Amino acid sequence: MSTKIKDSQGDRIFNVVNIIVLGVVGLCTLFPIYYVVVVSFTDPIEFLRKNLVLLPEKWSLEAYEYLLNNKSFMRSVGNSATLALIGTALSLVVTSAFAYALSRKRLLGRRIMLFLILFTILFNPGIIPNYMVVSELNLLDTIWALILPALTSGWFIILMKGFFDSIPDALEEAAKIDGCNDITTWVRIILPLSLPALAAFGLFYAVMYWNTYFNALLYLNDYTKWPIQLLLQNIISDSAGGAMMDDNLNIPPPPSEVLKMASVVVAITPIVIVYPFIQRHFAQGVMIGSVKG
Amino acid sequence: MNMMSQIRRDRYLYLLALPGILFFLLFKYLPMFGIVIAFQNYSPFLGFFQSEWVGFDHFIRLFNGDQFWIMFRNTLAISLLNLIFFFPMPIILSLMLNELRSNKYKRIIQTIIYLPHFLSWVIIVGLTFLMISVSQGVINEIIEMMGYEKYPFLNDPKLFWIILTVQTMWKDAGWGTIIFLAAMASVDPQQYEAAKIDGANRLRQMWHVTLPAIRNVITILLILQLGNMLDIGFEQVFLMYNGAVSGVAEIFDTYVYRTGIQQGQFSYSTAVGIFKSTVGLVLVVGANYLSKKLGDEGVY
């Protein structure tokens, strides 16, 4: 569209200003992430001396070596990985099964169920009643306290139902003729057709589980069960450098700041790895409706 | 066909729905019965049925306490700052992105500014310390290099709300552009051609062609934002909390956490939570009603 009529002088200035301002926005967004990565690879002595390192003279893996050998830290990374794997798998099954059932118009009680689901988005009884239920179910201090209460959500169900709504009934009828019941139709016909959507939802669930903090703060006292975010918060807020990091005393820890940065980088890394895949999906428009998060 | 035979016919569909139904019953509706403890002096030893009933005592205590107005003010202030400074950001950014001629540059900027949405608040607060803390914050190091005194940004009650707003902008302003860019993509390019022929420069094209195309989306999001006025993220405020800013950092959710989980005042803190949720429900439903009145389609 740009070629037919020549840009005026004002439009050209506009273009340049636009490009520069957006570039600055991009740099401001990237800078904190860039800085945390750089500091985490800086020689700890150099950082102590300078306190501000935009590009280290001497690179170092000391902080990462320390973290890799640290039982508490690696255990938390493992907890979070387990949580993300099991949680995502269960969430996908429960969400897609329920959403598929709700997308079939012949289902008796469909409207009332949809209303009750919507109501849970609008009204939350609050932290304490939720805590009491988790406690009564004996889930405190187990990984299930982080998975079950977060298993699915009204938003995800409604979004995924919207996706299933668009699958034509004819497909289901054809499957019926071939002798499928509703469950085998769902497994053999519907799910394979929905793989891109499942992948997108799966990535969002995985990120949600990896970022679990509040539920862990509420429901887990036992620090051996802590996910990485909760340990990370303790590492960051403890100026002495790692409250829980006392189990490899034979190796002196690098100065706390560099160690903190390295822990942050470890917690960011999985997100950055899956990010291109997530981006591809929301670029396709699958997740457009989910801006509410 | 009667009900029973319909249910029998769809028994496998109900089986698919069952885990989800159980989830909603256990983790969404069972807690709603927990609301009764707000009207009791609940004691875990006596249970729901034996605990003493006290009517609205806990609510009266909440409204009469100084804490209430402080929390109310803090919540309102943080919400208003978000509304004024954060809310327009995705609109402005998407208008600017939409004007970029180079698709490659546009994609690079989009990739960068969507990313922070996926980072946890723990990480974002960690990055905030790294930027502005006194000990090693980049900005304070620069201030010192220029020969000035370091400034404790994180401990200044006057700056607390503003720092929260900036964090929210960093995290979600980019992500918020997605929905506007999608709406803009549906504009017929011929409309821009026509506007150009009529002599409209880029700014006028934005104003007369692009902006009307996203007007409905803006209204809907504004309604959502107004409806969620009381919903300020617990994690962000809780993690930024420190003794020096306690007066401006207490919101309903952090107060419920402190009085309920940390001090064990289950009944009182449940009452606080219910007050917040009820006002929130009224706000959302009211905002939605208003939008339908104004001729938009409403959100729910």
Spatial order of strands in the largest sheet of chain B: 1-2
Strands of chain A, total number: 0
Q: Which whole number gives the mean pLDDT of chain A?
A: 87
Give the uncertain stretches of chain B in residue-range form: none
- Overall pLDDT metric of chain B: 90
Query: Quick one: CATH class of the largest domain in chain B?
Result: Mainly Alpha
Q: What is the total domain count of chain B? A: 2
Percentage of helical residues of chain B?
over 70%
CATH homologous superfamily grouping of the largest domain in chain A: MetI-like
Named at the architecture level, the CATH assignment of the largest domain in chain A is: Orthogonal Bundle
How many strands, what sense, and barrel or not for the largest sheet of chain B? 2 strands, antiparallel
What does this structure look like?
The complex is a heterodimer of chains A (293) and B (300). Chain A has 2 domains: 9-62, no CATH class; 70-290, MetI-like fold (Orthogonal Bundle), CATH 1.10.3720.10. Helices cover 68% and strands 0% of the residues of chain A. With 293 residues, chain A is an all-alpha fold. Chain A is globular and about 75 Å long. Chain A has helices spanning 9-40, 44-50, 62-68, 71-103, 110-122, 127-136, 144-147, 154-165, 169-177, 182-193, 195-210, 214-219, 228-237, 256-283. Chain B is mostly helical and 300 residues long. Chain B folds into 2 domains: 1-55, no CATH class; 59-293, MetI-like (MetI-like fold). Chain B contains 17 helices and 2 strands. In chain B, helix 4 (57-64) packs across helix 17 (266-293), helix 5 (66-86) crosses helix 10 and helix 6 (88-99) crosses helix 11 (177-185). The model of chain B has no long low-confidence stretch (mean pLDDT 90). Chains A and B meet through helix 1, helix 4, helix 5, helix 6 and helix 10 of A and helix 1, helix 2, helix 6, helix 7 and helix 8 of B.
